[in-house]
Design brief:
The chain is 60% helix and 13% strand. The longest helix has 67 residues.
């Protein structure tokens, strides 16, 4: 299939070239008429000179000079010089005008290339009073060369104008034809920053080739969107499997270990009652009872992390979810040896438990809060940390964890690791949101860290 872009770029250039040819032809024809007129005038002047010179022997000196001067005033020899001298060599008449002067550099270059050859034709004319006049006709090559050079420069000027016109038109045509490339380059740059909408909304291109490229970019954006949607779906399935596994482990811990530990604690209590207080085994039994109690406490804490709210309430942001977030912050506030003051900024409308929520969002917000606070406690060495969860009635949830700790010197590397922040980022991304991760106080001695994400949804997106 013929390409439209070269044709669009070249057709105006071809038009300018044709116009230049027409202009050159017109100027050539005008110069032709001018040269013909000049040649005819010079031929007539030379014929009149021949006539006057033929009559010189029959005229007196005064009459002959008057005739020649009248002829000189009416015409001019072309590239020839007439000189008339008397018998003593005194000049009586000369048609020598100042020839057109060429620049010295140009004249020297032309002389080196090819020096002009001049000639002179001389003869005597007898006078009626006696004696003779000496007549000489000399060639003037400088005049001819100057005239030829002028014609050459005129032609070069026309040619240069045509070339400049072609270049200007081609430049304008090229810029006009390729102007949509700027839009495509900007869209590709936006794609590199994760914004595919610019590719999807590329405008129709005026050139078939550019429209083909734009169509390919739109198809690429759609394919990337589909691939990312599929990847998000698979990630959600993996996270769902993980959550299901947590619930299964929690159920087994509660049903198996809980019952067995309770039975073991009852047996230890029975043995303790059967032994007198002075029995050497009494302290051992008391220690066993204490260890069983601590083990039950640890299992309850593990159950709270694995299943922070009652079964059946994982998918909404109701009271159980609010209580779970509150308990999470409180557990870190009570944790021994942490040295960080944990705060909760929770804004949740009372009717939020009746709203439709995106699949798994409530659980994901709890899990990312859990992971973020764990990172603060383990690595930040912060004085204070705050979990912010702001839920609005228009289907918007703002989540953030901020601390005033030492920050992360290798933030990009931490986000690429297979756990910790990387897992947190993956869970946020699975909800179709990008995690914002940046220092809380850039440039400070303790820059801290701020993790934030904004989740939005509507009834249409949940349908």
């Amino acid at each position: 299939m013929p390409l439209a872009l070269p044709r669009l770029i070249m057709w105006r250039a071809v038009a300018v070239a044709g116009l230049g040819l027409v202009l050159g032809l017109v100027l050539g024809l005008l110069r032709l008429h001018s040269d013909v007129d000049e040649e005819l005038l010079a031929a007539r002047t030379l014929a009149q000179l021949s006539q006057h010179l033929a009559l010189l022997p029959q005229q007196s000196d005064e009459q002959a000079l008057r005739t020649l001067r009248l002829w000189q005033s009416e015409g001019e020899l072309r590239h020839l010089q007439l000189t008339v001298r008397d018998a003593h060599g005194h000049p009586l008449l000369s048609t020598a005008d100042e020839p057109p002067q060429l620049p010295p550099t140009v004249a020297a270059w032309l002389d080196r290339w090819r020096a002009p050859e001049s000639f002179t034709v001389a003869w005597q004319v007898a006078r009626p009073q006696g004696g003779a006049w000496f007549i000489a006709l000399s060639a003037r090559p400088d005049s001819e060369r100057s005239e030829a050079l002028t014609f050459l420069l005129e032609g070069l000027g026309v040619l240069a104008g045509v070339v400049v016109g072609i270049l200007l038109v081609m430049g304008w045509n090229t810029r006009r034809a390729l102007a949509p490339l700027g839009t495509m380059v900007s869209a590709i740059g936006a794609l590199q920053q994760g914004q595919r909408d610019a590719l999807r909304h590329l405008p129709p291109m005026p050139v078939a080739e550019l429209e083909a490229v734009a169509g390919a970019l739109r198809a690429l954006a759609d394919a990337l969107a589909q691939a990312e949607a599929e990847q998000r779906r698979l990630t959600r399935q993996v996270l769902t499997v993980q959550d299901d596994e947590r619930r299964r482990l929690a159920r087994e811990l509660h049903d198996e270990f809980g019952q067995r530990l309770t039975a073991l604690r009852v047996d230890v209590a029975w043995l303790t009652r059967q032994r007198p207080s002075t029995d050497p085994a009494a302290p051992v039994l008391a220690g066993m009872a204490e260890q069983i109690g601590q083990l039950q406490h640890d299992i309850r804490a593990t159950l709270a992390r694995l299943r922070p709210w009652p079964a059946g309430t994982e998918g909404d942001g109701g009271a159980a979810w609010v209580e779970a977030l509150t308990a999470l912050v409180a557990s870190w506030q009570r944790a021994p040896g942490v040295g960080t003051t944990f705060q909760l900024d929770l804004r949740c409308p009372p009717a939020s438990d009746a709203w439709p929520w995106p699949d798994g969002l409530a659980a994901d917000v709890y899990r990312i809060s859990q992971e973020a606070l764990t990172n603060v406690a383990r690595h930040a060495h912060a004085r204070t940390a705050c979990l912010r969860v702001h839920l609005s009635a228009d289907g918007h949830l703002h989540w953030a964890v901020e601390d005033d700790g030492v920050g992360l010197p290798a933030l990009g590397e931490a986000l690429r690791r297979g756990n910790g922040l990387a897992g947190l980022k993956e869970r946020v991304w699975a909800q179709g949101v990008e995690l914002c991760c940046q220092p809380l106080s850039p440039g400070a001695e303790r820059p801290g860290l701020r993790l934030a994400a904004d989740f939005t949804w509507s009834a249409e997106t949940l349908a």
